[in-house]
Amino acid sequence: LAARKGVRIVENCAARTLEISAGRVSGVWTEAGHIETSSVLVAGGAWSSLFLRRHGVSIPQLSVRSTAAATEPMPEIHAGAASGEHIAFRRRQDGGYTLAPGGSHLLHLGPDAFRHATKYLPALMANPFGSRYSPAAPDGYPDSWSTPRHWTPDSQSPFERMRVLNPAPERSGLRSIERNFRRLFPQLESVRLKASWAGMIDAMPDVVPIVDRVQAIIGLVVATGMSGHGFGIGPGIGRVVSDMIQGNEIGHDLTRFRLSRFSDGSAIRLGPSL
Fold this sequence. Notes:
CATH topology: FAD/NAD(P)-binding domain
Oligomer: single chain
Number of strands: 13
Largest sheet: 7 strands, mixed
Order of helices and strands: EEEEHEEEEEHHEHHEEEH
């Protein structure tokens, strides 16, 4: 639809840096060259914090790894979706269920994890056993100790070194998911997993996204930190961001999503769980 309206979509091309002139966005340097523009949206998911920090914009976003699985077709126990403390699930069109841990995830410790640790204390106190920790992220991950924090427009960026952030599912996590599902529904004779996957979730200290203009860089808009809710709220966020970039009336109060809430002395108020 976008292409039919004249939008040019360039895939497999990393945006390396912004070009900023007199405090305004004037372009983007990509691995394929320069693009002149006065507006840029950063919606890089787990990569957003790394990209923004390169330009002096600090957001307390971390990325956590979560594992999910799909069962083979089985008798219906619930037609919709549900989530609890230890398990979340939804019915699939193929007759199986997608299963995921209710509030458990793995955090790879890195520079940002220590830099923003105090902002995550309310979430840690609310759910002290929800996070598990790894001493280091794999090479190339957004908060890996080995990932460069600075690069030039004409040098290879971290986004080219790791084009697809596709972590492997945790075996222990899969066993836990299956065990908790069986415990919740003991009447099931058999629960067989046919597929599994994992992903890095862009998480914020209050589990609420940032959707805002960056006041220090005119023309820069950020939409990140969906905290596991991106599939659900993505269409609405997309419409809001589109209006924001075009200068249209937004029609919604975005105070809760402002970037400055992490620097203006506001108390951290937790939103819905991951």
